[in-house]
Amino acid sequence: MEWMRQAREIFYEEVLKDYMEHPRMIILSTHLISEMDSLFEEVLIIKEGTLLMHKNTEELLTEGLSITGSAEKIDTWTKGKTILKEQSLGNTKSSMIYGPITNADRETASDSGLQFDPISLQELFILLTEEGADSE
After folding, report:
1. How far out from the chain centre does Cα 51 lie?
2. d(CA 71, CA 20)
3. Torsion sign across C-alpha atoms 99, 104, 106, 111
4. Which one-letter DSSP state was computed for residue 34?
5. Is 74 in contact with 95 (CB distance < 8 Å)?
6. Which residue, among 87, 89, 92, 85, has the nearest Cα to 71 in the 3D structure?
7. pTM for the full predicted model
């Protein structure tokens, strides 16, 4: 199935080339977000015919974060935040959160020894559209 991946890559390259020559809005509908995320300026997430979200891609990605550290510190830091997913191993916990993070939030997390990592657009899409997920 390597030829399918190569065909998709050629398609994406051609879309981007054509857009650069003739700038305009191009609407793409896909579940293969990870293959195309570098092309997106804006993201609309639609679930069962309802618009869940319409945001600038960069803004959306800065609001989805994974934070890792001691379970106690993670629980304290994430209180009141939207938690999309949690995983624990021993005393270490990782929480994927969604929402605006202030500089004060980042400073508090850093002072507590917590580590931030980005969430991919694909992962964020999955988490925001899962059954029971609440987004804006």
Report:
1. 17
2. 47
3. negative
4. H
5. yes
6. 92
7. 0.73
For residue 91, how many other CB atoms are within 10 A of its CB?
Answer: 10
Q: Is the pLDDT of residue 134 over 70?
A: no
What is the rounded CA–CA span in Å between residue 23 and residue 78? 41
User: Could you count the other beta carbons within 10 Å of the beta carbon of residue 113?
Assistant: 10
| Token pair listed for 135 | 């987004």
Q: Are 66 and 118 in contact (CB under 8 A)?
A: yes
Please, what sign has the CA dihedral across residues 117, 54, 32, 49?
positive
Average pLDDT, the chain: 87
One-letter amino acid for residue 128 of the chain: L
Q: What is the pLDDT of residues 76-119, one digit of tens each?
A: 999 999 999 999 999 999 999 999 888 898 899 999 999 999 99
3-state class (DSSP) for residue 71: helix
85 beta partners = 96
The full DSSP string for 36-70 is: HGGG-SEEEEEETTEEEEEEEHHHHHHTEEEEEEE
3-state SS string for 91-102? CEEEEEEECCCC
